[in-house]
Write a structure and sequence with these properties.
Layout lengths: L1 E10 L2 E11 L4 E5 L6 H9 L6 E6 L5 E4 L11 H5 L4 H12 L5 H12 L2 H14 L16 H15 L3 E5 L7 H11 L5 E5 L3 H7 L2 E6 L2 E6 L2 H36 L6 H13 L26 E12 L2 E12 L3 E5 L6 H9 L6 E6 L5 E4 L13 H6 L7 H10 L16 H14 L4 E5 L7 H13 L3 E5 L3 H7 L2 E6 L2 E5 L3 H8 L40 H49 L9 H32 L8
Parallel strand pairs: 3-7, 3-8, 5-6, 6-7, 12-16, 12-17, 14-15, 15-16
Antiparallel strand pairs: 1-2, 1-4, 8-9, 10-11, 10-13, 17-18
Length: 657
């Protein structure tokens, strides 16, 4: 479907591709990887026809459709969220507007209605609603003007539009950046049944592991294909680099030997012709390039925070509510020096709220927050980038702190986070979202607190920057509590897990794999949002107040008011379970509906072929099956709408502005 043949492309005086080739067939699932600046975005531009190759050819199969989701900044106008999700073609958009603004008996209305019907417009809206619900939009959001949403929600609406459109080739640039955990799980599951081909750029290794069948790496100006998922690619790449290094060393030895002969005998008349022959032999060789080192980029010892007391921070009998919504009642929590804890649990369980209470961003409504001896608290949230001064350069921003590091030190760390060369002289105003996130991390690591609270620190970071952050945190000597949906990052960093659900904290005295084993999770990703009760498992053996890792469990001997709070929490938990059951049933129906829609499309295409009617009885049989599939689709869609409504009835939702 997509063929890239011997393409060469230079950009800003630098050659990105040289004799590069690639084939993507229908149904392929391909991950595109490479270091920052290797040419991933340029390759997408070549495929989309926004740029032309200097040499070679990019060919798209005739009539094949392409859909593209950029990493950030998709447009939004006066259309509603639902209209945006249904905007699969300019013709349909125009027809929809005419149908809404003209009289039903007018010729324009009749023509628009005919076009809308002919292009399957009536099936778009229920499909769009299902997809929007999967991406965490509430029904009340469907009629909101898209331009009133925040940038992340606009990106979700555009993602819904692409999934409704179902292009033959889907180009995705970091599609998980704007998704919360539950939406990410839904999206990942949805893509497993996507009928078209997918070519994606993603920093999320778990996402790539679950979805792709091959990895295309941009290296040495070529496109190198590895069969398998991310983990398989890492193994194959290591083996290939070992072979390349061996071949490179052998060739260098041969070149050195030939050069030595030429140098020794070129001045000797009897050997001059042989010496010249050796030099020509060197020139004729196809030189093997030395493999690029894959070692992590951080080789710098980061400044360390002052040592805190053993007890770092404590919450005692804390109540917290947003209006009538009670998140915590009688919460007890304690963190000890050196902990590295990840918070997991379903959306709305209170993970971010706990982090904000610990940071002091949210005031304690009832109860007490006690910060330990010599503790300096640092909170890294998704909004931290807004604190950057747009007039300062990257280098000035990195050094703008009470105890500034040297310029050389700052530039070394900035280089680890992909700010290289003249990049350090850019003002922060011109940086992308990902660049601002990296810069905010650099500032934090150059002047670290001894209690570090991080909410989704890997969002907008590429693979190299995530590795740099992992390496920096491996050196960090303070206390770390964080939230993340990046399974790789969690496995590399977390030493303990704290599960949060319905206001209850359940600590696990082991790393993420220990938590997966004890919670009997079905997958590493799904376990991040699991709210299910464990099967007769007591994660902390002590009958006292705290776990061996310092995260307090609820105290025994509660007063009557706390028993009332517990009863209310149990009631919320039961309601949440009912909602989850409805959501799971709705997801199951979505998968059935997706398969039926695929079969409906196949049957329709068969009935459109003239040769079908030459086979005796074939058309009749296909029509009967199509009628049965259509009936099942209508029934399942009706069931899905009822379940989705039930699932959303008690939903707290997320802020859309």
């Amino acid at each position: 479907m997509l063929t890239i043949s011997q393409v060469s492309k230079a950009f800003a005086g630098r050659t990105l591709f040289e004799d590069a080739s690639l084939q993507v067939n229908r149904g392929d699932r391909v991950g595109l990887v490479g270091p920052n600046g290797a040419g991933k975005s340029t390759l997408f531009s070549l495929i989309l026809g926004e740029a032309s190759p200097d040499e070679g050819k990019v060919s798209i199969e005739k009539s094949a459709t392409i859909g593209f989701l950029p990493q950030e900044h998709a447009p939004a106008g006066d259309e509603t969220v639902l209209e945006l999700a249904c905007a699969v073609s300019p013709e349909l958009i125009k027809a929809q507007r005419i149908m809404k603004t003209t009289a039903e008996d007018s010729a324009d209305h009749h023509d628009a209605l005919h076009l809308f019907d002919e292009q399957g417009g009536w099936q778009l809206e229920p499909k769009a609603k299902r997809i929007l619900a999967g991406l965490a939009f509430r029904e009340a959001d469907f009629d909101r003007p898209a331009k009133t949403l925040s940038g992340g929600w606009v990106m979700r609406a555009h993602l819904a539009r692409l999934l409704v459109q179902e292009p033959d080739l889907l180009l995705l640039d970091e599609p998980t950046n704007h998704l919360d955990l539950e939406s990410l799980v839904w999206f990942q599951e949805y893509l497993t049944s996507y009928p078209g081909a997918i070519l994606m750029i993603s920093h999320d290794r778990e996402f790539l592991n679950q979805l792709v069948g091959s990895i295309i790496e941009i290296a040495h100006k070529r496109l190198n294909r590895y069969r398998g998922n991310w983990d398989s690619y890492v193994e194959q790449r290591a083996a290939r680099e070992e072979q390349q290094l061996s071949a490179y060393k052998n060739q260098q030895k041969e070149i050195a030997s030939l050069q030595l002969f030429a140098d020794r005998f070129r001045a000797k008349a009897s050997k001059a012709s042989q010496a010249q022959s050796k030099l020509k032999q060197i020139d004729r060789m196809e030189k093997i390039e030395a493999p690029v080192s894959r070692e992590r980029t951080v080789h710098f010892r980061f400044p360390q925070p002052p040592r805190s007391g053993h007890r770092v921070i404590t919450l005692r009998e804390v109540d917290h509510a947003y209006g009538d919504l009670v998140v915590y009642g009688g919460l007890d929590f304690e963190a000890e020096r050196g902990q590295r804890t990840v918070l997991v649990g379903p959306n709305g369980a209170g993970k971010s709220t706990l982090l904000k209470l610990l940071a002091g961003v949210l005031p304690v409504q009832v109860g007490a927050r006690e910060v330990g001896h010599n503790v300096k608290v640092g909170y890294f949230s998704q909004y931290r980038v807004e604190m950057l001064d747009p007039k300062q350069t990257v280098l000035e921003t990195a050094r703008d702190m009470p105890n500034p590091v040297s310029e050389q030190t700052a530039r070394t760390v900035l280089g680890s986070f992909l700010f290289q060369g003249d990049d350090v002289f850019k003002t922060t105003a011109v940086l992308s979202g990902g660049e601002k996130t990296r810069l905010a991390l650099v500032r934090l690591l150059l002047d670290p607190p001894n209690l570090l609270l991080m909410d989704e620190p890997t969002t907008h970071l590429d693979v190299g920057s995530i590795d740099a952050l992992v390496s920096a945190l491996a050196q960090y000597e303070g206390t770390l509590i964080f939230i993340s949906h990046d399974v790789y990052f969690i496995r590399e960093v977390a030493k303990t897990v704290l599960h949060i659900n319905a206001g209850k904290l359940t600590p696990y005295a082991g790393d993420y794999d220990y938590y997966l084993d004890k919670s009997r999770a079905t997958s590493a990703r799904a376990a991040l949002t699991s709210g299910e009760k464990l099967h007769n498992f007591q994660p902390v053996a002590s009958k006292a107040e705290t776990s061996t890792n310092g995260a307090s469990v609820q105290k025994s001997g509660m007063r009557e008011t706390r028993e009332q709070r517990r009863a209310a929490a149990e009631e919320r938990k039961a309601e949440a379970k009912i909602k989850r059951d409805h959501e799971k049933a709705a997801r199951d129906l979505e998968m059935q509906i997706l398969k039926l829609e695929g079969r409906q499309k196949e049957l329709t295409e068969e009935l459109e072929k003239p040769e079908t009617y030459d086979r005796g009885g074939a058309a009749t049989q296909l029509n009967r099956e199509l009628q049965a599939v259509t009936t099942d689709l209508e029934r399942l869609t009706g069931e899905w709408e009822k379940l989705a409504e039930k699932a959303g009835a008690n939903s707290n939702g997320a802020s859309r502005s």
